[in-house]
Design brief:
The protein has 295 residues and is of the alpha/beta class. The chain folds into 2 domains: 4-207, Rossmann fold (3-Layer(aba) Sandwich), CATH 3.40.50; 211-281, no CATH class. It contains 8 helices and 14 strands. Helix 2 packs parallel to helix 4 (127-140) and helix 3 (104-113) packs antiparallel against helix 4 (127-140). It starts with a strand and ends in a 12-residue tail after the last strand. Mean pLDDT is 92; it is low at 289-295. The protein binds adenosine-5'-triphosphate. Adenosine-5'-triphosphate binds at residues 15-16, 19, 22, 40, 42-48, 183.
Length: 295
């Protein structure tokens, strides 16, 4: 089995003793070398999951294993940087904190691509410019696993495209595993090959994007034939007049004389799951937690 960079089992998190569960009963495995989209609506638990993976908070229940701390980098939504440092001092700090592994050229190239003057104080930077410095610091660390909480949120479209390209190139060249959160799938689709859909603190979908796509079909047919759907796992079904459309996971053959079958888009799959909170979740083969596998 491929190396694992995150393995969660029965993971749960409560913020404070009186708080509700931000995450509950989450089990999944992220194989090394994947670029993973962590998607879900506002308040779903994405930041909580990244905070747990980054070791910023401890689980209330269950376990999460990940890579050693020195090979992990995390860029949170608030981009914690020292405001009184200049950009140049921030990169020097990166070098001093990561002796022997600091990728000076990578970090400097990211900063230079944003035309940032190394003498500018961090507090004088815009939100998007701070994101750039935070990404330079994170990639400079040459992480084995890079966790990014809504990295693209305050970047303009050009910077977004350029930095996404830099992240992808780094992942390809150095085998960096990436987890990027967003509540907008289209922001990450195309760049990612693995998906974690979190909703109301639960993992709803987990696995390679190809496998998740392949597992689902969109069926259209007469509402009168709806009983036939019981042979499959129905994620969502909608009736319009005499017609019925259903997003299903097939468990056997479909009568092609009755149903028209299509491959749904990833967005259709996600939206159907979000609209149907009671639909069973799906964890595809290689992201199943197998007891005994060490990270
Ligand atoms: N520090 C905290 N104290 C108390 N509750 C919190 C705290 N942080 C998050 N929560 C709660 O935990 C749940 C999950 O929040 P989280 O920030 O992980 O969601 P998210 O998916 O990242 O959302 P968004 O897309 O809006 O950033 C929410 O109900 C939120 O109110």
């Amino acid at each position: 089995m491929t190396e694992t960079v995150i393995e969660a089992e029965g993971l749960g998190l409560r913020h404070g003793r009186r708080g509700g569960w931000a995450l509950r009963d989450c089990s999944f495995r992220l194989p090394a070398g994947r670029v993973c989209a962590l998607v879900g609506p506002n308040g779903a638990g994405k930041s909580s999951l990244l905070g747990l993976a980054a070791g910023l908070v401890l689980p209330t229940e269950g376990t999460l294993r990940t890579v050693p701390r020195e090979t992990l980098a995390y860029v949170g939504q608030n981009k914690p940087l020292y405001p009184q440092f200049t950009v140049g001092e921030t990169l020097r700090m990166g070098r001093e904190l990561n002796p022997g592994r600091w990728a000076a050229t990578t970090a400097e190239r990211i900063v230079a691509a944003g035309e940032l003057d190394p003498r500018t104080k961090v507090r004088a930077l815009s939100g998007g410019q701070r994101t750039r410095v935070a990404l330079a610091l994170a990639l400079g660390k040459r992480p084995g696993l890079l966790l990014l909480d809504e990295p693209m949120a305050d970047l303009d479209p050009l910077a977004r495209r350029e930095l996404m390209g830099t992240l992808m190139a780094d992942a390809a060249d150095n085998g960096t595993s990436l987890v990027m959160s967003s509540h907008i799938l289209t922001e990450l689709e195309g760049a990612c090959d693995h998906l974690l859909l979190v909703d109301r603190g639960r993992i709803r979908l987990s696995g390679p994007i190809d496998a998740i796509g392949e597992a689902h079909r969109l069926l259209s047919g007469p509402a009168a034939a709806s009983a036939q759907l019981a042979a499959h796992t129905v994620v969502e079904s909608r009736t319009t007049g005499r017609g019925l459309t259903a997003l299903v996971r097939l468990r056997g053959p479909v009568d092609s004389g009755v149903w028209q079958t299509e491959h749904p888009t990833l967005e259709e799959i996600l939206l159907a799951h979000l609209r149907s909170p009671d639909a069973p979740s799906l964890t595809t083969e290689d992201s199943l937690v197998s007891t005994g596998v060490r990270a």
